[in-house]
Design brief:
Layout lengths: L1 H32 L4 H10 L18 H12 L23 H22 L3 E2 L2 E2 L1 H5 L1 H20 L6 H27 L5 H26 L4 H28 L2 H4 L5 H4 L5 H7 L4 H10 L5 H13 L2 H23 L7 H12 L3
Antiparallel strand pairs: 1-2
Length: about 350
């Protein structure tokens, strides 16, 4: 009972932090997106959920804001100003009085650059409960808009007077190269019959962990942290990001379509080599062999359900859950290197707990 109450409390803290982040970041995010030329602006406004396919305003939002929240919470944990609080000119606080908000916006733009491209690569037809941008506007417009959104992220840093902006821009650019390498590996795995679990973990770290690590590192940079603290925050985000990916992979198999906006077992239907799947395929069990047979051919509804049962019987579900918990333990160890008094990092810990306990 006490553990459940604690988890509920952390969940409420994370939800409140995410809501504050959206209130702080979304106006700047929207202003930045609206600076795009007309055709690209229309695609981007639709993708972010602010307009429908005809350009009419909607009640939609721009996503959960997990990555921007990590930027702001990291800056705060290391003594930076709260979002919106003024900093002193020439000091770590933003001379414009926005804390690390520009960095938070840049990270969210980079994240959505990957989403626009990933939806095309994966042929996903639903995101955030409605058709993906490429299905509405076509593949060329979705890809080109993704490129422009990434350019907006780097432009924000180029125009930012904050003393950490140049280092932040270089770190984000390096991160995007790394996550593109992770995406390339992910695509290659789909064409390979055998993928080692270590390879899959390295791919997930690059594809997902790198950007969460970068978000935390950027918050540290904008707080004026030293190199060792910045690297520790990056490591925290990477470990938490891998835990996040493990849970996301579980949701991709067993998530509720009503919450995910995707068909049940969507990752299995696409025969993705997600972490629970690779753990099952490499388990040496009869169920793992059954899963390999199912993955060797096209799958329909009954096959998807059989594949989900095979992953579970082969231990893939239990392994992913246990490994997510282990990675979160490592994340906390890394965080303590940068913030010895973890009480100062309550927001970060609440966010990490939130993303690894979510079910959708």
């Amino acid at each position: 009972m006490a553990a459940n109450a604690l988890a509920a409390g952390e969940g409420q803290e994370a939800a409140a932090l995410l809501e504050r982040t959206r209130e702080t970041v979304n106006p700047e995010l929207r202003r930045t997106v609206e600076s795009l030329p007309g055709p690209m602006r229309r695609v981007a406004m639709y993708h972010f959920g602010w307009e429908d396919e005809e350009g009419r305003p909607t009640d939609g939002g721009a996503g959960k804001a997990i990555r921007p929240a990590l930027v702001l919470a990291s800056a705060q944990a290391l003594g930076g100003p709260l979002a919106g609080e003024p900093g002193e000119p020439g000091e770590p606080g933003d001379p414009a009085g926005r804390g690390a908000v520009r960095a938070a916006v840049a990270v969210e733009l980079a994240h959505n650059f990957t989403l626009l491209h990933d939806d095309v690569i994966d042929k996903d037809v639903r995101r955030r409960g409605r058709p993906t941008a490429w299905t509405v506007f076509g593949i060329p417009d979705a890809i080109i808009t993704g490129d422009a959104v990434m350019a907006l992220a780097l432009r924000l840093f180029a125009e930012d007077p904050h003393p950490a902006a140049a280092a932040a821009s270089a770190r984000l650019a390096a991160c995007v190269i790394e996550l593109c390498a992770g995406q390339q590996a992910d695509c290659a795995f789909e064409r390979r019959p055998d993928v080692a679990l270590d390879e899959c973990l390295a791919m997930a770290t690059a594809k997902t962990g790198a950007l969460l690590g970068c978000a935390c590192a950027l918050g540290a940079l904008y707080a004026g942290a030293g190199p060792e603290e910045v690297e520790a925050m990056d490591a925290f985000g990477r470990e938490a990001g891998l835990a996040f990916q493990l849970i996301d992979d579980l949701i991709g198999i067993w998530g509720d379509p009503g919450h995910t906006g995707k068909p049940a077992g969507a990752d299995l239907l696409a025969r993705k080599k997600s972490l629970p799947v690779v753990a099952a395929l490499t388990s040496g069990t009869r169920a793992g062999a059954e899963l390999a047979d199912l993955y060797a051919g096209p799958m329909a509804g009954d096959d998807v359900r059989a594949a989900a049962r095979a992953v579970e019987r082969a231990g893939g579900r239990d392994w992913a859950q246990a490994h997510a918990a282990d990675r979160m333990g490592r994340a906390v160890q890394e965080l303590s290197r940068a913030v010895p008094d973890l009480a100062a990092a309550g927001g970060l810990l609440a966010l990490a707990e939130f993303v690894t306990r979510r079910t959708r």
